[in-house]
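@channel anyone free to eyeball this complex?
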Amino acid sequence: MKKALIGILLSLASGPFLIGNSLADIDPAPSIDLTGAEQAWLAQHPVIRLAPDPNFAPIEWFNQQGDYNGISADYVHLLEERLGIQFEIVRGTNWKDILARVKRGEVDALSAVIRSEGREQQLAFTQPYFTAKRGIFSARAMPAFKDLDDFAGYKVAVIEGSWMDEQLSQRPNMSVNHFYDIATALTATSLGVTDIVASSIDTMDFARRKEGLTNLQLVGELEDDMALSFAVTAQLSPLAKILDKALATIGEDEAAAIRTRWMEIDEQPFWEKPFYRNLALAIAALLFSCFAVVLFWNRTLNARVQKRSKQLQEAQAQLFQAEKMESVGRLSAGVAHEVKNPLAIIQMGADYLTEVIPAELGVQEVIDDIDDAVRRADQVIKGLLDFSHSDKLTLTRGNINALIEDTLRLVAHEYQQRNIEIQSHLANTNPRILMDANTIQQVLINMLMNAAQAVGKDGMVTIRCEVEQVPADDNGSPFKPGDDILRLSIQDNGPGISEDDLEKLFEPFFTTKPVGEGTGLGLSVSKNIIELHSGRMGICNAPTGGALVTIDFKLETDSTA
Amino acid sequence: MKKRILMVDDEAALTRMVKLNLERTGDYEVRTENEGTKAMAAAREFKPDLIMLDVMMPGMSGDEIAAQLKEDPELSETKFIFVTAIVTRDEAGQAGSEIGGNVFLAKPIKAAELIATIERVLA
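replying in thread with the prediction:
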């Protein structure tokens, strides 16, 4: 951090002036032994167009203010000083751009180039003035790489037009991904797009820290060091020798001072870089999105859990109800047998007494009460047996409207006696359902009589039969939203049903009727019958008051008939 | 001549009540049995004009007793009435009806109805 601060301060100040002074303090410029031709050449070429690699820190690069910086820059300034020449710094966008400029003749010299056979055809090189360790960075563990041949089988991120690019292109079985600069190559490797980046360890470390690519590690060092030279175009080849002579005047102390000065320097905290600011924002946005998604998911999950729990509870309740029904059914058959025989004995006994006891003793009333008691007990047993018999139905495709009208005729007398009005609204399409007409009629009679008892004298009962679609929010078994159903509803204008009673309505033997007037089996038997028709039955309080019984059947279309 | 009736039911009290009601009319001689094998023997010895059988009995059911007795040539003229407690749907369907020449009655039955049915079957 301290070094970084110094670096920034240095670069903010007039670089060449400061550098020149500081270096002069260390070692005063020695004289360079130039030939007459060389001196003449320099006189003819007072300005040399030099293009540094803009993305090769800490060896050379341009800082935020656009100043040419780094080890090579220091050498450039020294050369200017000692040769009395001027380098016109050409700022390219990346290495590929620099090479293109060289090719187009826009650039005379390069300041940090690795000598290669291919390059020597276009460029004249000085002796290397700086050597750097070559290493390999990767985001994951890698085997020990010794030389470039070991890269086979890995995706290598390389700078387009770089020495590494040139070398790898000459080797078979290399998988190379090209990038314009080292930072991008490292980022790609950090993200796993590529496996490795091989270049100067210092350069990569600098870029890695600058870009904050903390997952990248140095996974190996190559045996061959990177030797950097100046290079000049073929047309300016005499310059190479002149530069060599000047470079030779730079002593080891000077070189060491330059090296020390630029190594491990950081230009700017990475968090202040627009890239990282944007990255941070992107990460924050991503985290927020994740958070939002997790929150939403959590809620959805919660809602789902609650829904499932409710479904489970309902399923358990249904199962419990079904088990209860089944046990009641089993019980009723046994009970019927055990009760009917004593009833038969009582009946026969009473009948015998009627015959043998003289009428004047006035016991006929007692006998009649016995008769009545036997009849009531028998009704209870019949209810139980209906219950146990309701699992055997003979289903045929039938017109429910006709059945309703037939049933209304059956109860008409009872309704008239109580002066109860009955309104019927039946679907005009003559909907058909699969039903056991006898048992459905039994259910209808049961419901209509319940309604009549609920409204009392002068009440009103409405029976409807309509084709409907199961609404989207209705997942009640056995139907799905969107299913076509036949809904039969019976509504009365009585007092309705209390919340407590609503829960128990379908329980066997539950009744709100006075003792002796109901077995408490009507609704449970009815519900059982409807469910055996693959339908469902529900009772609620209508919004307009009174109880509302709904019975939903699967609608039989002609094709399903 | 009085018609002979064999009443078979595992409920002894019920057979007694039926016997009282039928014999009170003076038209019938009633013998009762409460168990399958004894009922078979009684039928072959008593040679009743009518046998009333409870359908559900421990051991032999009324159906089984009737099936065996019907194969006895000496009982070829004997009529049968089944009395049921209607504990199955099949029985419910049979109650009060005549199936295969046999009459089915549901318990509890009033004495007057029983007598009327017997008179019809034996007519």
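from a first look: The two ends of chain A are 86 Å apart (CA to CA).
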